């Protein structure tokens, strides 16, 4: 019930070219030899001095990177370079998804940005939606990004499992952890948690639990709409909140390094 790489289809259905964006195909090799595919989408509209940061986008548990063009366009409009990857077993990435594997995939993406492209850690913003929220929180706990955005995610796999199966000893039965709120406790960069009261898959209370576990500076964005369309339904309030958070976080990082 965790991974759905073939829904709505494993193959890539389009590319950023279809929305007028240039991109680079990226192939990463994880520590265990898995080949991870992704796109690096540079922001050609902003000069190097104007670019706010680079966003590492870790998506949810279904579909692949080609189903995230709406969000890619949104972040591009905010002046960000973007790296988005498919976890092992998703899209054109090899292997089979596992919890430990998704962490290795995220780590490979981080290494690509910092080592291969030479981007400073304090110029990288981590963004994770749904399952990706937990993976991005784990990655943030291992490094020092400029900021972390966790959208429509769960506090832990155990918590979600207990909600779905209230009469089963989920903590004893489940081999998955994805303990988002514990990862967040180890993070000291700015954190934005976004969640909708109308989320039909992951309850609003899960997002609040993540937020309550975060250190200051922390922010909560109350969205509208369902699990998969909340960022669209929320409209300008969503975009404005992201822009404000990103600007504040990057500017603070710049001040800290001067």
From TrEMBL:
InterPro entries: AB_hydrolase_1, AB_hydrolase_fold. Residues 54-169 form the AB hydrolase-1 domain. This is AB hydrolase-1 domain-containing protein. It comes from endosymbiont of Tevnia jerichonana. The lineage of its organism: Bacteria, Pseudomonadati, Pseudomonadota, Gammaproteobacteria, sulfur-oxidizing symbionts.
